[in-house]
Design brief:
By secondary structure, the chain is α/β, with parallel strands linked by helices. It is about 50% helix and about 15% strand. Helix 2 runs antiparallel to helix 4. It binds coproporphyrinogen III. Coproporphyrinogen III binds next to strand 3.
C-alpha cells in the first residue's frame, strides 16, 4: 500500500518545509453542515453506526473533499470510541450529545477499565483508515486522531458533556492518585490506538485536548500535558522512510504554548483566541502552527471571511510552517458556500507569503 501523494503540501507545512501556498483543512469538515453528510447519517440510522461502518465512514470522509479543494482528509470517527472500547458503553441521545452507560468515579471502576485490544475492539477504526487511504488514492494525506487522556477522562468521569467539569476536577483535586491511574491507562491505550492508525495508513496524527483549557496552570501541567508528552514519546515517527508528523491541540491552551511546543510534537494547534503571529514568535522555531480563524466567521459574508483570512495569514507572515484551520470545529449551521469562500481565500491570498 504505497501510494504516491499528489498533494503533500499539508505534510510539508507540518514539517516546516517550503510550500507554494498555505494548506488548509477544517476541523469537523465532515459534519452536519453538509446535506450529503446528513443523508448518509440518515441511511446509517445513527452517528455511531456511521462511525462503526468503514464503508460509510469512508464515504463521509471524502464528502468535504469532493466539494472543496482541501489539503488533508481526516478520518471520520469520534474521540469517544476509546472510552467505549474501554467498556463504558457510549450512546448518543438526540439533542443531548454523548453519554456513557457507566462512569469511572472510584477505584473499583478504574480497576474494571478494560485495556482494549485495538486490533479487535477498535478494528472498525483501523479498517476505516485503510479503506479511506485506498479511496483517497493519494489525493491528499489522511489524518488520524485521538482525544487526549485528560479530555477523554472528562467524559469518562462526568459520563457525558459538562458545563463545569465539577466531577472530574473534584477527582483531580481530591484523589489525584486515582486520577493519575485513569490518565495513565488511557494514555497507554491512546498511544497504541494512534500507532495502529499509523500502521493502517494515517499519514499524520492529531491529539484533541478539547478540555485542557478548563484546567488551572498547575493542573494542566500535572493532568494534561505530561500524558500528551507520553503519547508523543511513544508514537511511530516514520513509516516506510516517510515522516509521520503529529499535532497537539489544546483548546484554550494559548497561555501554555511554550510548554506544549516543548513536548516534542511537530505542530501545535491554536484556537481563535490567540494571535498566531505572537504564537509564531514564541514557538515558531520549534513547531509548525495550525489554526486559527474563529469558526463563527463563516456566519459572516464571503467578503468578511476573506478579510479575516488575510488578517490570519498576515499575522503568521512569510514562510512555511502554517497549516490554516478553524480554531475549533465548524458549526452545523454553517452555509457550505461560505466554507467554499474560506478555502478559496486561503489558497489565493496565501501565495504571496511563500
Ligand atoms: O473533523 C472531522 O471531520 C472528523 C470527525 C470528528 C468528529 N468528532 C465527528 C463528530 C472529530 C475529529 C471529532 C472529535 C471530537 N469528538 C472532539 C474533539 C474536538 C472538539 O470538537 O473539541 C470531541 C470533544 C468529541 C465528542 C463529541 N462528539 C461531542 C461532544 C459530540 C456532540 C456534539 C455535536 O456536535 O453534536 C460529538 C458528535 C460528533 N462527532 C458529530 C460529528 C460529525 C455530530 C454527530 C451527528 O452527526 O449527530
Amino acid at each position: 500500500m504505497n501510494f504516491k501523494l499528489k498533494n503533500d503540501t499539508f505534510l510539508r507545512a507540518l514539517l516546516r518545509q517550503p510550500t507554494e501556498y498555505t494548506p488548509l483543512w477544517m476541523m469537523r469538515q465532515a459534519g452536519r453542515y453538509l446535506p450529503e453528510y446528513c443523508a448518509t447519517r440518515k441511511r446509517a440510522g445513527s452517528f455511531l453506526n456511521l462511525c462503526k461502518s468503514p464503508d460509510m465512514a469512508t464515504e463521509v470522509t471524502l464528502q468535504p473533499l469532493d466539494r472543496f479543494p482541501l489539503d488533508a482528509a481526516i478520518l471520520f470517527s469520534d474521540i469517544l470510541t476509546v472510552p467505549d472500547a474501554m467498556g463504558l458503553g457510549l450512546y448518543f441521545s438526540e439533542g443531548e450529545g454523548p453519554k456513557f452507560e457507566r462512569t469511572v468515579r472510584d477505584e473499583a471502576a478504574v480497576k474494571a477499565l478494560h485495556v482494549p485490544d485495538i486490533g479487535k475492539d477498535l478494528k472498525y477504526v483501523t479498517d476505516a483508515v485503510s479503506q479511506i487511504r485506498k479511496a483517497l488514492d493519494g489525493r491528499v494525506p489522511l489524518i488520524g486522531f485521538s482525544g487526549s487522556p485528560w479530555t477523554l477522562a472528562c467524559y469518562m468521569v462526568e459520563g457525558g458533556s459538562s458545563d463545569d467539569y465539577a466531577k472530574v476536577k473534584t477527582m483531580a483535586y481530591s484523589e489525584p492518585k486515582l486520577m493519575h491511574q485513569i490518565l495513565s491507562k488511557t494514555a497507554d491505550t491512546v498511544t497504541q490506538y494512534l500507532n495502529a492508525q499509523i500502521e493502517a495508513g494515517a499519514q499524520a496524527v492529531m491529539i484533541f485536548d478539547s478540555w485542557g483549557g478548563a484546567l488551572s496552570h498547575a493542573a494542566y501541567h500535572e493532568f494534561s500535558l505530561p500524558y500528551m508528552q507520553r503519547i508523543v514519546d511513544g508514537l511511530i515517527k516514520e513509516k516506510d522512510g516517510v515522516k509521520i508528523p503529529n499535532i497537539v491541540f489544546t483548546k484554550g491552551g494559548g497561555l501554555w504554548i511554550e510548554s506544549i511546543a516543548n513536548i516534542g510534537c511537530d505542530a501545535v494547534g491554536l484556537d481563535w483566541t490567540m494571535d498566531i503571529g505572537i504564537a509564531r514568535q514564541k514557538v515558531g522555531h520549534k513547531v509548525a502552527l495550525q489554526g486559527n480563524i474563529d469558526p463563527l466567521i463563516l456566519f459572516a459574508s464571503p467578503d468578511a471571511i476573506r478579510a479575516e483570512v488575510e488578517k490570519v495569514l498576515a499575522s503568521y507572515g512569510y514562510g512555511s510552517g502554517h497549516v490554516f484551520n478553524l480554531g475549533h470545529g465548524i458549526s452545523q449551521h454553517t452555509n457550505p458556500e461560505h466554507a467554499a469562500a474560506l478555502v478559496q481565500a486561503v489558497h489565493e491570498l496565501s501565495r504571496k507569503y511563500h
